[in-house]
Amino acid sequence: MSEDLNIVVIQGTRRVQRESAKAGDFIAKVGDSIEGVSITLVDPNDLNLPGDGNDPEGKDPKFTKIAEEADAFFVVVPEYNHSFPGTLKRVLDSELQNYIHKPVALAGASSGRWGGVRAVESLVPALREMGLVVTHTDAYFPNVQDVFDEAGEPKDKFYYQSVEKAFAELVWMAKALSYGRDNL
């Protein structure tokens, strides 16, 4: 494959005090360090998504282009009340035709000890319905407010290993599914 894989990292919330953004920034940084990968970080605060759903008036042309050109997605899923934020669902709902047979890795984040696992598990059925192929290697950031230092680096190197492992599967799936989309 001569061109870099285009992987889109999506921050999952607009919340002002969102600690999960630190996880998203870290995931994008790790992705940027992988040879053959180009990262696009999407912050829902930078999108204009009026209305609901996948109707033409509910799209942001900027995100439509990003989703169309993406080979894969890595979604940061903050856990709010045992589920994912409505903001994330709104972003994802806007681009159904641009997800078919593209892989998505997930990273859960929460202020508690579960690390967003309930939010990730509740999002999986919706992602499958959207046509995305969910990888089985997730990354989790429990007590996310305590994970990162002032420079945005994780205090424990385990988080590098976890995110690198999720990227390894995502890159493999992106290559396989890209071949399938282009040749089958």
Short recap of the structure:
This protein has 184 residues and is of the alpha/beta class.
The number of E-state strands comes to 6
Compute the separation of the termini in Å: 17 Å
Helical fraction = 25-40%
Using the alpha-carbon principal axes, give the shape.
globular
Fill in the keyword field for this structure:
single chain, 184 residues, alpha/beta, Rossmann fold, six-stranded parallel sheet, 5 helices
Layout of helices and strands:
Layout: E1 5-10, H1 20-32, E2 37-42, H2 61-69, E3 72-78, H3 86-93, E4 102-109, H4 117-129, E5 132-134, E6 139-141, H5 158-183
Parallel strand pairs: 1-2, 1-3, 3-4, 4-5, 4-6
What does the model show?
By secondary structure, the chain is an alpha/beta fold. The protein has one domain (5-183): 3-Layer(aba) Sandwich (Rossmann fold). The chain has five helices and six strands, in the order βαβαβαβαββα. Strands 1, 2, 3, 4, 5 and 6 form a six-stranded parallel sheet that branches. The two termini are 17 Å apart. The mean pLDDT is 96.
